[in-house]
Amino acid sequence: MRCDQCKHWDEPREWDFDYAGMRRCLAIKQAWDVENAAFPHEGKDKYDFEDWSEVQRIEAEALKAAKAVAQDGSSYAASIRTTGDFGCVLFEQKP
Hints:
Layout: E1 22-24, E2 29-30, H1 31-37, H2 52-66, E3 69-70, E4 81-83
Parallel strand pairs: 2-3
Antiparallel strand pairs: 1-4
């Protein structure tokens, strides 16, 4: 269940922390992408709901189902970097 054996461990990229043996985890999505992917919900877009608490409930369910998300202060871009010997419950063996 190590990242270096997981299909979600991205290839090294120059902006990743390759010099430290770290790569990006593709299984852990940006929080806003997880929230937005929950819509349309039952045929309704996020902004079609009159009750905003229903939107928040749907987004909360999506976040819980994701198990983990990445979030930064700017909501511009966020990702998780791990070393090869890290592991998690989202592990899927490389083919």
